[in-house]
Amino acid sequence: MPNPSHTSSSAEASGPHAAARVPSRPTPVSAIYAFSFINSLATGLVTSGIFFITNAAYQFTQLQNFALGVLLGITYIAGALGAQPAVHAIRRVAPGISSRRTVMLTMVALAVLTTLPVLVCGLGPIEPGAGGQWVIWVLIALYSPLTGLLWPMIESFLSGGRSGPELRSAIGRWNVVWSGSLVFGYFAIAPFIERAPGTAFLALGGLHLLSLFVVLRFPREPGEHHHEHAANVPPVYADLLVTFRILLPASYVVSSALQPMLPASCAAIGVPVAWQTIAASAWLLARCAGFFVLSRSEAWHGKWSAPILGGGLIVVGFALTALSPLLLPASYAPESGPHVPALAALLIGLSLFGFGMSIIYAGAIYYAMEVHAAEVEAGGMHEALIGFGYAAGPAMGVGATLAVRQGLIAERYLNALVLAGMLLVLTVAVVLVVRSVRAAHAKPAS
Predict the structure, then answer these.
(1) Does the structure show a pLDDT above 50 at 7?
(2) N or C, which end of the chain is more exposed by having fewer CB within 10 Å?
(3) Which segment of 43-47, 49-53, 368-372 scores lowest on mean pLDDT?
(4) SS3 per-residue string spanning the chain
């Protein structure tokens, strides 16, 4: 999938390229959609599906998976904040290089990185005690920041030369495309997780290389960005933008805490390894469905019910997901097969969570386009906020896991402790939203 940084606006994404942009035609949406489908399949599975691979094939503990999530977030922050300086540095070294060529070089680098686990560990899983886990840490440390560079460039190609209903329609369909590819990817990767993780990595690298042919349909530079005048935008849109801009990083703190715990939760309730990513795809499928519904309707525009519903669904969905193992009886053995009530709670929780994420994500993009507040942000800052969410969530998981190891809480309550941390994050987000909206209303009318 496009990394969760995709919520940046077209103006933000274009920042690294503004100095070198030559006016060009809009990029064909079919090319953007094809590229995004292919690469969301690869980048999304490396940055989120990786936790299932490390759990089943590389003997990572839950603590290691949480720590890996922290590394992913920190390196993404570095990549997001460094995207603009990096592109400017490339242009200084090679003044004639185009945005299209920069995308192609990024794809080659990502493809090369996916070969590292195969070179070190081979195509199959590693044997217990054989070592080689370090290569996963190296892969994420190098791969994650490159995704922080890639997706803002693709957003720039998507939005360049488009405005108004055309732009909103293009982004709405794009959300469905990239999120739908992840659902497909979680099904496709399932047979390889336990027995042939190296094969999965090679396949993902091949997808990066395949997308090079699609990039050839891109113009050399994104089209010029057209911005609608905001004179007729209802005042409530500015308040809603503030709300979604606060809820967005908070929602990704929750999301990033959820993903590393899913393999252990699925295993605890008896889901076979080959079916774990399929079960986990429930939230991805719900998010994709949510994007489709929201892209077809304007009923939620300007309504406070949207962020309230989105935030509420995230809280309830995460709680059901995190607490589903607590439904297991003390005598239950995972080898006996899935525990139906716990599995049902897990799937329902994931579905509610995914739909809530779609509302927050779509709202952040929509109001950024309408209000254009993104223009005042430094290039990559919004992506860095999402990266903070990606690091902070697993960091809470690390703290909870260490509390279990120190005997401060029972292991069965680990997810409940993480849930408490997530509720604290969301409570702080709600307080910030209320304060920001009150401050906005207190300003005298200009």
Answers:
(1) no
(2) C
(3) 368-372
(4) CCCHHHHCCHHHHHHHHHHHCCCCCCCCHHHHHHHHHHHHHHHHHHHCCHHHHHHHHCCCCHHHHHHHHHHHHHHHHHHHHHHHHHHHHHHHHCCCCCHHHHHHHHHHHHHHHCCHHHHHHCCCCCCCCCCCCHHHHHHHHHHHHHHHHHHHHHHHHHHCCCCHHHHHHHHHHHHHHHHHHHHHHHHHHHHHCCCCHHHHHHHHHHHHHHHHHHHCCCCCCCCCCCCCCCCCCCCHHHHHHHHHHHHHHHHHHHHHHHHHHHHHHHHHCCCCHHHHHHHHHHHHHHHHHHHHHHHCCCCCCCCCHHHHHHHHHHHHHHHHHHHHHHHCCCCCCHHHCCCHHHHHHHHHHHHHHHHHHHHHHHHHHHHHHHHCHHHHCCCCHHHHHHHHHHHHHHHHHHHHHHHHHCCCCCHHHHHHHHHHHHHHHHHHHHHHHHHHHHHHHHCCCC
pLDDT of residue 237: 83
Report pLDDT for 385: 63
Of 78-92, 303-317, 351-365, least confident by mean pLDDT is: 78-92
Q: Give residue-wise pLDDT tens across range 217-247.
A: 999 888 776 555 455 667 788 888 888 888 8
Domain extent at residue 183: 4-442
Two structure tokens written together for 385: 């906020």
Looking up tokens 């969530």, which residue turns up? Answer: 393
CATH number, domain containing residue 357: 1.20.1250.20
Q: What are 118's two structure tokens? A: 């195969």
Q: Which residue has the higher pLDDT, 190 or 24?
A: 190
> In this predicted model, what pLDDT tens digit does every residue of 314-362 receive, in sequence order?
989 988 988 888 888 878 888 777 888 999 999 999 999 999 999 998 8
Residue type, 31: A
